[in-house]
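User: I'm new to structure prediction. If I give you an amino acid sequence, what do you actually give back? Let's try with this one:
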Amino acid sequence: MRKVSSTSTSNEVDLRLRKFSYSWKTFTGDFFGGLIAALIALPYGLAMATLMGLPPIMGLFTSLLTCPITFLLGRNPVLIGGTSTVTVPFIAKAVADYGIAGAAKISLIASIFMMIFSVLRWGRYILQVPHSVVSGFSCGIGAMMIVAQLKTIFGLAIPNSATQLSTLAQFWMVLEKLDGFKWPPFVLGAIVIGVAFFVASRSKMMPAPLIGVIVAVCASYALGLHEKIVGRLPLELPPLASFVWSPADLDKLLLPGLGLAFVTSVNLLITSRVVDHFRGWHKPMRSADADGELGAFGIANVCVGMFGAPISVGIPARSLANVRCGGTTRMSNLFHGLVLMATLWLGSEYVSKIPVAALAGVTAYVGICLLEWSTWKRLPKMRRLDAAAFLMTSISVLVVNAVIAVALGCSLYGLRWVYVRYFAGTSQVQPVQKTA
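Assistant: Good question. You get back a string of structure tokens that encode the predicted 3D arrangement of the chain. For your 436 residues, that looks like this:
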């Protein structure tokens, strides 16, 4: 039997202690990373919930309720979750049809599907969705967000039922109602967008949307504008969503729930890969980590679904800001939730006075950032297949819906595979003649 010296054993112990030690420098980085992530989450979460037709506070409860679970079970320690743009078309449609109960139902269905994906170890396969399809989906969602906020920014009297129409139909309705244009909400929305872009161009570490909202609120008071405000934001835990299941509901929501789970899973895993790359971890995500991440967020989203809040997705802006400001461990995720809770507890009176037009400006700003400008510039140089998948996915999001858009984008690669596998080269490759 091989003898282990006491010196080597002590060296191993010292190495483990250094590995798991938590220094003051690490604490400072995690705290400021979580702080900036929370400041970004504040206006963004309120705006996303409003866009879905839910009470604004629901967009923040998504972060507060899922943070402890993803902190304990999540595989990527610096990945920050919250209400995302990719869930908007699914949850907004469910809310329009069933109210908060619809958000609860579709969130629970999607959460169960995410856990099924994890158990079946499908995370490793979801990672294979082509990047061009994801970029096209992001671009389409960005355009959808901008169009959805035009009625609020322009002050137009358009019924909420218009959200059930396609994005192109909504845009046409906005053009028809332009004679009712109002300056005050437009000024507030434009201030948020302009200030956010200016701050973001100067520093990537500053919460640009939040600063834009603060400037807009100050301008509202200085100019004497009396626009609709967010209203009171109660910090107490919302009541459990009241709903009952019926076969008809399941028939209507099962497919959208599956689509929501698929799109959420794709964006979650891709965001995790992007964050790891930004941290300097250039190795591909391990298959087990991909599956575990889906399971962690699936469990967390069951909790938010019970209250009718939107499901949580990995948010690139918050996660990258967390890393950029020094976050290195999963404690940064916990600090993000604690700072957000403290902000609502101590400053809810000020948050309630934010004009709705300012939140619309936040949504429009995020939508503009999602338009994949770099991809449009590279479009002429891309492979024709990648360019076609990008265009088909982005356009289909606007014309049809997000589920069909992703399916159509992926189908191009499927047709390409079938062609190469069974047809390409069959007329060119000649059988080898055997020689005596």
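You can read the tokens as a compact description of the fold. Here is one thing that stands out. The beta strands are 81-82, 313-314.
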